UniProtKB/TrEMBL annotation:
Organism: Phormidesmis priestleyi ULC007
Keywords assigned by UniProt, alphabetized: Membrane, Methyltransferase, Transferase, Transmembrane, Transmembrane helix
Protein name, per record: Isoprenylcysteine carboxylmethyltransferase family protein
Topology in membrane: Multi-pass membrane protein
Pfam families associated with the record: PEMT (PF04191)
Subcellular location: Endomembrane system
InterPro entries: Phopholipid_MeTrfase
Length: 156
């Protein structure tokens, strides 16, 4: 029997599901054990700014990936190193936008518990998703990816 090579990074879970699941738990805790931490107008204004920023970054990232004709879904093979659009200032603009979306929603609800759960979520995403993707891209694209990695920060 031959061993099959899987052409994807083998992330631990679909990243949007990690963000959505953690946010859902944080919001549930907020409704069971309310703990606000900001004046409502500051929470709402900050949340809206983050949501708009998240949308702009995500749109730029998706457009850049579409132009490069590579998959957005990490379970599919990557066919190109994308370095334009939002990828010119972050190697992970989609995860950056998901983080901003998460924080924006948590702020709109003024949900302390959701924000508290962000730290363990980022640790899981960093280790179970991003590092696996980086290893995969290094193996697949070699020096091309290493040059990109050396010139663009992981988050911002």
């Amino acid at each position: 029997m031959s061993e099959e090579t899987v052409d994807n990074p083998g992330v631990i879970a679909f990243p949007p599901a990690l963000f959505a699941g953690t946010l859902a738990i944080g919001l549930l805790l907020h409704f069971i054990f309310p703990a606000t931490f900001l004046p409502q107008w500051i929470a709402i204004a900050s949340g809206v700014v983050l949501l708009v920023g998240a949308a702009l970054i995500a749109i730029s990232a998706f457009r850049a990936m579409r132009r490069a004709q590579t998959a957005v879904d990490p379970s599919c093979p990557t066919t190109a190193i994308v370095s334009d659009g939002a990828f010119s200032f972050s190697r992970n603009p989609i995860y950056l936008s998901l983080t901003m979306l998460y924080v924006g929603i948590a702020l709109l609800f003024n949900a302390f518990w959701a924000l508290l759960l962000l730290l363990p979520l980022i640790v899981v995403v960093q280790n179970g998703v991003i590092k696996r993707e980086e290893h995969y891209l290094e193996q697949k694209f070699g020096d091309e990816y290493l040059r990109y990695k050396a010139s663009v920060r992981r988050w911002v």
